């Protein structure tokens, strides 16, 4: 480069024997040793310039001769003894201009450098393998297929007037592509490489002096580092190091110098202003003609940008690797999340199915109070959702098998009935169902073996039926409610299906618990129903057969616990020949009301049967006094009619009627006409013992029917009682002419009943 021509303070200007001291082979030393360069030429060329082959010459401008050639330059020119004329060296190397002509001795790049002028970059051709100038000139024409291009850069190493006039020449080699599409672009690329070479820093150190100091640096060194030559000459170049300089790289350089071998490395150095830069450094030993180490030549290049790009590339690669790892991790996490979601979905679906089954079981099992229907519903819940077939065993209060029900997904009623008769109703101690009922714990047989079947089923016939029905996995769960074992559910799955698991055990146990509670509730209801039936028989007697009349009664209880309530009716054939007709209602709709009604009915019968005054109003007054005095019942309503038979055939019946707050009775004449006895009213029993109730006397023709009832027959939510009475009136009036008491009772209760109150109806037809 032109700026390198003048280098004030250069050691070459201060010491004309610099290159002799540095070990550069001059004409004399080369002639004496017979070598074309220093022993260091045997070392590999430093890879400072990114692997581009570099040939270096030192030219003595005084003699216009080449006095030093590095190994790469030796490879270009062959075994040429130094010193040698620059033109001769160029011819030996096979250098021509771009047209293929030999380099001019006055204007060629080597001659220009030998004349002390710089060459900033000039392209020449290299035709290797040709031994004479004439051969190279003849063969190296334009477009020659064997030619390569070199880019020549040169500049003076010493100032004019120095005793020894030296210049440095650098050749950049670039193998052309197979086909050069754009020659101008190709030349421009070579020019850029030449510029790179001229920007390379060169240093020389003297290992014979203490601490191996610098004895020469070129202008590029001062430009790159910011240090002037006078500031660094005489110092070891470690001053470029700093706190972040890698110790390993420093140790590598130190070891190479100690071993007198070429070392190349990249390390972080610092400029004079403290800024850091990445320095690619190659240090090569230089030996004299006797093989003695005389200097080290350092070649330095600022590769900060390249290192930055490499770091960015490494960072990008690391980021890519991290991103890939994160992507892999994310994919793994997503896959695990998908599996977890599928598992959660499966568990949710199973939980939902279980909840649906339990909800259906609850609603289905509590919807009936019949034991046989309950067991049938339980079997339907189990098959086919839980098993291929099932048999349910029920124990009685003494722990004996009371009954069983079985179900198969394919029907198989005959085989199921035979299996039930031979095995289920006679369970041995080793059978899973018996073991569950004995231990009150589930029994899981995931794999049913022939040995298990032989122990569990003692009947040979039952074993044969079991094999026909098919069973490879069995699960039995006890039905336990209120600390009592009521039976067991045996679930069986056929071969080819999945075996029962712990999840199935939990589900079946839950179902068995609900089934047991439903079974126990049915039994409790049946017990209460039996008690209620017995009580009802005692409180609602069979109507007696009384000469001259026909009668019928109907009773419906509002209680869900027992078929009894507070409503009652009675028909008495009195000692004087008259007939007592009573319909009453004690407040309440349960067993307590029924008990109070029983006491009240007993008092009423006594008052009617042994009445000093048979007048119905007087009888009701006496009953009222006894009820309140004995505290038999809190409140009650009733209607009492005393019918006196006619004194002669065809004469009318005389009916005496009194009412204690009760709905009005109906009279239906033989022709079907209906009369509501609304004028007969009075205070209900249990309010005021001083209350007087009047008696109405009616003469009714034979064939007339008296219909008395309780308010449960006419009361409806949101409706007035008069509306209910009118509806009853319409139903009774609509009955066929000649309808008897039974038909009239049926017609009376044929309307819509809300079942919130007891209903009692008594119909008596006078003959």
UniProtKB/TrEMBL annotation:
PROSITE patterns, A to Z: PAC, PAS
Pfam families the record matches: GAF_2 (PF13185), PAS_8 (PF13188), PAS_9 (PF13426), SpoIIE (PF07228)
MF GO annotations: phosphatase activity
InterPro entries: Bact_Sigma-Reg (IPR052016), GAF (IPR003018), GAF-like_dom_sf (IPR029016), PAC (IPR001610), PAS (IPR000014), PAS-assoc_C (IPR000700), PAS-like_dom_sf (IPR035965), PPM-type-like_dom_sf (IPR036457)
Every PAS domain range: 211-236
Record has Hydrolase as a keyword: yes
Domain PAC intervals: 261-315
Coiled coil (UniProt feature): 308-361
Gene3D superfamilies xref list: 3.30.450.40, PAS domain, PPM-type phosphatase domain
Matching PANTHER family: STAGE II SPORULATION PROTEIN E, STAGE II SPORULATION PROTEIN E-RELATED
Protein name as annotated: PAS domain S-box-containing protein
Provenance organism: Blastococcus haudaquaticus
């Amino acid at each position: 480069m032109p700026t390198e021509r003048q280098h004030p303070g250069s050691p070459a200007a201060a010491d004309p024997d610099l290159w002799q001291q540095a070990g550069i082979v001059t004409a004399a030393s080369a002639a004496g040793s017979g070598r074309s360069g220093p022993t260091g030429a045997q070392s590999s060329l430093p890879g400072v310039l990114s692997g581009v082959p570099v040939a270096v010459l030192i030219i003595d401008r005084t003699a216009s001769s080449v006095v030093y050639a590095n190994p790469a330059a030796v490879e270009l020119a062959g075994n040429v003894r130094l010193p040698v004329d620059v033109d001769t060296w160029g011819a030996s190397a096979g250098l021509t201009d771009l047209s293929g002509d030999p380099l001019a001795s006055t204007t060629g790049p080597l001659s220009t450098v030998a004349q002390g002028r710089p060459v900033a970059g000039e392209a020449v051709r290299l035709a290797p393998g040709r031994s004479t100038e004439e051969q190279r000139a003849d063969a190296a024409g334009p477009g020659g297929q064997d030619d390569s291009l070199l880019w020549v850069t040169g500049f003076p190493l010493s100032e004019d007037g120095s005793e020894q006039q030296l210049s440095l020449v650098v050749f950049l080699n670039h193998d052309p592509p197979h086909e050069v599409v754009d020659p101008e672009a190709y030349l421009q690329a070579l020019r850029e490489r030449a510029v790179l070479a001229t920007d390379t820093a060169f240093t020389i150190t003297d290992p014979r002096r203490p601490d191996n100091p610098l004895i020469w640096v070129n202008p590029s060194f001062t430009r790159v580092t910011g240090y002037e030559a006078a500031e660094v000459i005489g110092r070891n170049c470690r001053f470029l190091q700093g706190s972040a300089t890698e110790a390993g790289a420093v140790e590598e350089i130190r070891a190479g110098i100690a071993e007198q071998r070429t070392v190349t490395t990249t390390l972080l150095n610092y400029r004079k202003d403290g800024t850091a830069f990445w320095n690619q450094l190659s240090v090569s030993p230089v030996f004299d003609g006797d093989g003695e180490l005389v200097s080290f030549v350092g070649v330095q290049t600022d590769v900060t940008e390249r290192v930055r790009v490499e770091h960015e590339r490494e960072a990008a690669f690391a980021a890519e690797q991290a991103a890939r790892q994160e992507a892999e991790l994310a994919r793994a996490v997503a896959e695990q999340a998908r599996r977890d979601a599928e598992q959660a979905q499966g568990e949710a679906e199973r939980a939902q199915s279980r909840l649906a089954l339990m909800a259906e079981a609850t609603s289905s099992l509590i919807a009936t109070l019949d034991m046989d229907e309950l067991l049938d519903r339980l079997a339907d819940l189990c098959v086919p959702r839980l098993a291929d077939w099932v048999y349910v065993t029920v124990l009685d209060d003494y722990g004996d098998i009371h009954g069983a029900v079985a179900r198969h997904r394919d029907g198989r009623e005959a085989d199921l009935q035979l299996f039930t008769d031979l095995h289920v109703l006679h369970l041995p101690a080793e059978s899973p169902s018996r073991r569950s009922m004995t231990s009150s714990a589930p029994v899981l047989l995931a794999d049913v073996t022939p040995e298990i079947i032989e122990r569990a089923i003692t009947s040979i016939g039952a074993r044969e039926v079991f094999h026909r029905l098919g069973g490879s996995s069995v699960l039995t769960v006890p039905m336990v409610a209120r600390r009592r074992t009521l039976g067991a559910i045996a679930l069986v799955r056929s071969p080819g299906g999945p075996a029962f698991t712990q999840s199935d055990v939990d589900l079946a146990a839950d179902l068995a618990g609900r089934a047991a509670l439903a079974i126990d509730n049915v039994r409790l209801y049946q017990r209460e129903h039996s008690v209620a039936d017995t009580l009802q028989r005692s409180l609602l007697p069979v109507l007696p057969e009384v000469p001259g009349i026909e009668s019928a009664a109907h009773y419906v209880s509002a209680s869900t616990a027992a078929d009894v309530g507070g409503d009652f009716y009675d028909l008495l054939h009195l000692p004087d020949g008259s007939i007592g007709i009573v319909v009453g209602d004690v407040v309440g709709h349960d067993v307590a009301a029924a008990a109070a009604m029983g006491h009240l009915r007993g008092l009423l019968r006594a008052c009617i049967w042994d009445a000093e005054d048979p007048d119905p109003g007087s009888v009701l007054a006496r009953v009222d006094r006894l009820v309140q005095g004995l505290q038999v019942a809190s409140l009650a309503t009733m209607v009492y009619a005393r019918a006196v038979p006619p004194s002669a055939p065809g004469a009318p019946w005389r009916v005496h009627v009194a009412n204690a707050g009760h709905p009005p009775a109906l009279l239906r004449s033989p022709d079907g006409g209906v009369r509501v006895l609304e004028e007969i009213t009075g205070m209900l029993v249990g309010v005021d013992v001083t209350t007087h109730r009047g008696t109405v006397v009616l003469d009714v023709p034979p064939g007339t029917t008296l219909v008395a009832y309780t308010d449960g027959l006419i009361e409806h939510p949101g409706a007035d009682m008069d509306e209910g009475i009118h509806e009853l009136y319409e139903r009774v009036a609509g009955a066929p002419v000649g309808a008897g008491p039974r038909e009239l009772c049926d017609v009376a209760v044929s309307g819509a009943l809300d079942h919130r109150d007891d209903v009692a109806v008594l119909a008596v037809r006078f003959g």
